[in-house]
Amino acid sequence: MLFGEIAYGPIHSRRLGVSLGMELMPLEHKLCTFNCVYCECGWNTPVDHPQLPTRSEVRAALEAKLRQIVNGTCPNGTSLDVITFSGNGEPTLHPDFLGIIEDTCALRDQYCPDAKVSVLSNSTQLGREDVVAALKRCDNRILKLDAGTDEMMRRIDLPVNKELTVERIMGWLAQFEGDFTLQTCFLRGEHDGKPIDNTTPEELDAWYKAVERLRPKQIMIYVIDRKTPEEHLEKISREEMERIASPLRAKGYEVSISA
Questions:
Q1: Are 230 and 187 in contact (CB under 8 A)?
Q2: Do residues 21 and 87 touch, judged by C-beta distance below 8 A?
């Protein structure tokens, strides 16, 4: 499922409310630093020179949508909770990401001052100062960590950088001193003949330790909800997700579940 517009929606997000989606990656194919087995956008498509929307194109598309919403002429609704950057891959890959976020905040303040600016990121570009600066301008930084061990992270996320480690991701996440939302997808299954399960006692123990170290202000845990590129995956039940959340809630963490 690819998003074919720079600004799409608003749509109802099961995690964020009424959301205007913003697409910074190519409209025709997925471009990401991960190749997650559960990604609704499918597998990455190798392209030598991917065409990204320019900063000015993103600004124009966003302003046009916000004007429609404010004027009551938007066919998808006239209210807005959040402007969300996600889409067909990793939004922070865009070379003008910081400038785009600055434009977005200015347009939000002008047209829909009550809306939040959110970014869903896989955390792989947090070694870039401009990306960190941009994310600190946003209201919601929703940052991924799908496993507490390198082996399971690599089986689930299939990072393009084969040397990427959980420790490196956690070091980058620590820059926000807990002022972010940690996002994790729980699932079971297999890929290329290797088992995938980040719900085992060993994997959960490693993930809980990561949470305790990072101390995020909020935790979003969720399950697969749409067709996935890897067919041999299992959706985790609501009851099991509640059991995963329970020890963290007992320690005072805010944990939301999308199941």
A1: no
A2: yes
pLDDT tens profile 187-238? 999 999 999 999 999 999 999 999 999 999 999 999 998 899 999 999 999 9
Buried b / exposed e across 46-72, counting CB within 10 Å, b at 16+? Answer: eeeeeebbebeebbebbbebbebbeee
CB 17: neighbour CB atoms within 10 A? 15
CA distance 183 to 164: 18
Q: What is the model's pLDDT at position 157?
A: 97
pTM over 0.90: yes
Banded model confidence at residue 165, pLDDT cuts 50, 70, 90: very high
Whether a cis peptide bond, with omega within 30° of 0, leads into 10 is: yes
The structure tokens listed for 83 are 């402007």
Instruction: Compute the distance between CA of residue 119 and CA of residue 148 in angstroms, rounded to an integer.
Output: 22
DSSP annotation of 43 reads S
Residue with tokens 């949470």: 211
CA distances from 147 to 63, 76, 204 (A): 38, 36, 8
